[in-house]
């Protein structure tokens, strides 16, 4: 019973006390990891492997996804950033190349928003609901 009280109290405090939350972004480079492709939708295993707390980037506020030609190869990069790179696509033709390549950059400011699909933000209210659900399910086992 004491554990239940601590869980509920902790969940309530997390709603009241402001946290200094940093952003979480997916970080990968298709030139190093073939799983990091443009239309990738993260599952739980991917989240554990590629989700980054961005604490190594000063003033990280954005998640970025870039697709296009990098170092001579068509690929995708995802990373954390302290600046807004904007969101746009363009067709690029490299010197001496007859083909044009679509190159895009997308910047977003929500947690894990650079994976290719919408992603739920994990905030204090979600933590409270998850804690209560877990507490109730443990009590019924």
Descriptors for this entry?
141 residues, alpha+beta, CD59, 5-stranded antiparallel sheet, two-stranded antiparallel sheet, 3 helices, 7 strands, 27% helix, signal
Question: In words, what does this structure look like?
Answer:
- The chain has a domain at 22-119: CD59 (Ribbon), CATH 2.10.60.10.
- The chain is built from 3 helices and 7 strands; from the N terminus they run H-E-E-H-E-E-E-E-E-H.
- The chain has helices spanning 2-16, 44-50, 124-139, and strands at residues 25-26, 28-29, 51-52, 62-70, 73-81, 88-92, 101-108.
- It has a 5-stranded antiparallel β-sheet, with no helix packed on it. A two-stranded antiparallel sheet has the order 1-3.
- Strand 4 (62-70) and strand 5 (73-81) form a beta hairpin.
- The radius of gyration is 20 Å and the shape is globular.
- The two termini are 14 Å apart.
- Keywords: Glycoprotein, Signal.
Q: Count of helical segments?
A: 3
Might you state the CATH topology name of one domain? CD59
Rounded radius of gyration (Å): 20 Å
Are there runs of 5+ residues with pLDDT below 50, and where?
A: 9-20, 118-127
Strand order of the largest sheet: 2-5-4-7-6
Mean pLDDT score: 76
SSE blueprint and pairings:
Elements: H1 2-16, E1 25-26, E2 28-29, H2 44-50, E3 51-52, E4 62-70, E5 73-81, E6 88-92, E7 101-108, H3 124-139
Antiparallel strand pairs: 1-3, 2-5, 4-5, 4-7, 6-7
Helix pairs in contact: 1-3
Brief summary of the model shown:
It is built from three helices and seven strands, in the order αββαβββββα. The protein has helices spanning 2-16, 44-50, 124-139; strands at residues 25-26, 28-29, 51-52, 62-70, 73-81, 88-92, 101-108. The protein has a five-stranded antiparallel sheet, with no helix packed on it. Strands 1-3 form a two-stranded antiparallel ribbon.
